Amino acid sequence: MAAKGVGEEEVGQVEDAPLLEAAHACEASDAVRQLSGSRFEAFFRVFHRLRFVSVAFWAVLVGVCAYFALGFIGRCQTVLLPPASSPAGVARALYARLFPRRAAEQDAVLFMRVCAESSRDDVFTDEWGRRATENITRFLAAYPNSSYVRRAVGRFTYNESVYENDEVARLFLDALVAKDKKSTLLLLTTADNYNKRAFVEYVRAHLASDVDTRNGTYEVMMLGSSAMDADTAAGTARDLRSMDLFSIPFALLVVVLVLRSLVLVLVPLISVACSVAVSFALMNGATHLLDVADFTPAVMMTLALALSVDYSLFLLARLTEERRRGVPFRQAVMVAHCYSGTTILTSGSVLTLCLLSLVVMPVVQLRGVGLGGMAAVASTVVVNVWLVPALLCAFPCLFGLRGMLPCVRRCRHPPALTPED
Questions:
Q1: What is the band of 59 on the pLDDT scale with cuts at 50, 70, 90?
Q2: Spatial separation of the C-alpha atoms in residues 158 and 171, rounded to whole Å
Q3: 150 close to 105: Cβ distance less than 8 angstroms
Q4: What phi, psi does 77 have (nearest 5°)?
Q5: Which pLDDT tens digit goes with each residue over 385-409?
Q6: Hey, is 154 helix, strand or coil?
Q7: Cβ–Cβ under 8 Å, residues 226 and 108
Q8: 384 contacts 345 by C-beta, under 8 angstroms
Q9: Is the Cβ–Cβ distance between 226 and 143 less than 8 Å?
Q10: Which of 55, 200, 231, 368 would suit a FRET pair with 223, their CA atoms being 20 to 30 Å apart?
Q11: pLDDT at res. 198
Q12: Residues with Cβ within 8 Å of residue 366, at least 6 apart in sequence
């Protein structure tokens, strides 16, 4: 009896299979029927006709944005500014108004010392200190932006006659020498603009080539906000590469497992690349108007990566579902664009409004983060509701392939598409 029951159940399942397929087809036809004759269908017809124009436009836009996006990380800096209404903020505003020239400057420090612990050389009296200072001031004067370096003050930048006859100068210069007289400082005053990274690279390169360290006996290092911002930017770039190295393969694995297609994995990759390029380029322009914290690119990259994969899954999952129900490719893209696109717009709008609250906060560090997050979210939404459907419509022979790994025969002879595709 048990065996008979199992057999009857299997027969029932086989008999029900056509009914299930018919039910899915009815559901699919209902979704298409609801959009038939609607304003969205009319919009989608125009959108489908301009699909190649859209893809070409985005190709040019991303190429231009990629050029400006490369400089965004270098323009970020360590932002340590108090709220404008705080006592420190009021004092800073008064300082900038009463001493505008000094407020427009920043300080960097070159630290010279004796490396060998057993050496008895005295930097304070050693001729090496004077010769090294002369070489440093020489290549600082030759910096391409001649107005960038304003002053260089150190123990060996003054004549000995000034040091011996001016007691105030002697006290100040002696304060630049350590108590053990094996270390000294060279204070640099530079313009407060966004050439910090280039200036730090220039100084470090010439320190390595123009200053004789006598086989490591002496050492010259650069300190200050300029060096810190340059090293922070380099560290941020390394962190972004590490994040991409670990996050993107994991995200693509999730896409493959959900969609069961290696071809459709191209869509999230294109979405991530375009969203990052556009949002970084927008923020590169914003750095001319406000200070952007050095951790903002990492936040933007995280948002762009997560949302690009998420929104692409919304579209592609609905597309795959409609295709399994037998809907033609073009109509499946239209259904996915309509229903999943609405979800993407709603989600992106909510996230943008939430990030807008950071922009209006008095903390300067959070304004750049909020603006960068808004740029990343907005770029991701536009890419997924405009570029991704245009790509799907422009290349149906590629994205219409079914299966985890389409065979060579199927790639050479793709499935026939209906006239509507």
A1: very high
A2: 13
A3: yes
A4: -150, 165
A5: 999 999 999 998 888 777 666 554 4
A6: strand
A7: yes
A8: no
A9: no
A10: 368
A11: 80
A12: 358
Closest CA to 235 of 178, 298, 313: 298
Cα(135)–Cα(140) distance, integer angstroms: 9
Tokens 């260089």 sit at which residue? 152
Integer angstrom CA distances of residue 387 from 45, 329, 331, 390 = 15, 17, 17, 5
Give residue 181's region: left, alpha or beta (phi > 0; psi -120 to 50): left
Structure tokens at 380: 């991701």
Query: Residue 48: which residues within 8 A CB-CB, separation 6 or more?
Result: 330, 393
Residue 215 DSSP class: T
Q: Give the least confident one: 102-111, 149-158, 382-391.
A: 102-111
What is the residue type of 3? A
CA atoms within 13 A on the CB side of 5: 2
Burial 296-334 (b: 16+ CB within 10 A, else e): bbbbbbebbbebbbbbbbbbbbbbbbbbebebbbbbbbb
Distance CA 328, CA 321 (A): 12
| CA 277 – CA 281 distance, rounded (Å) | 6
Type of residue found at 290: L
Residue 161 in tokens = 């006659």
Residue 92 reports pLDDT greater than 80 = no
DSSP 355-382: HHHHHTSS-HHHHHHHHHHHHHHHHHHH
Which are the contacts of 400, defined by CB distance < 8 A and separation ≥ 6?
A: 323, 329, 414, 415, 417, 421
CB atoms within 10 A of CB 172: 13
Backbone torsions φ then ψ of 192, nearest 5 degrees? -90, 80
Q: Kindly list the distances between the CA atom of residue 42 and the CA atoms of 48, 261, 318, 380, in Å, as whole numbers in the listed order.
A: 10, 30, 21, 25
Please state, as a whole number, how many other Cβ atoms lie within 10 Å of the Cβ of residue 158.
15
Alpha-carbon Rg for the chain, nearest whole angstrom, is 32
Concatenating the DSSP letter of every residue in 284-329 gives: HHHTTTS--BTTHHHHHHHHHHHHHHHHHHHHHHHHHHHHHTT--H
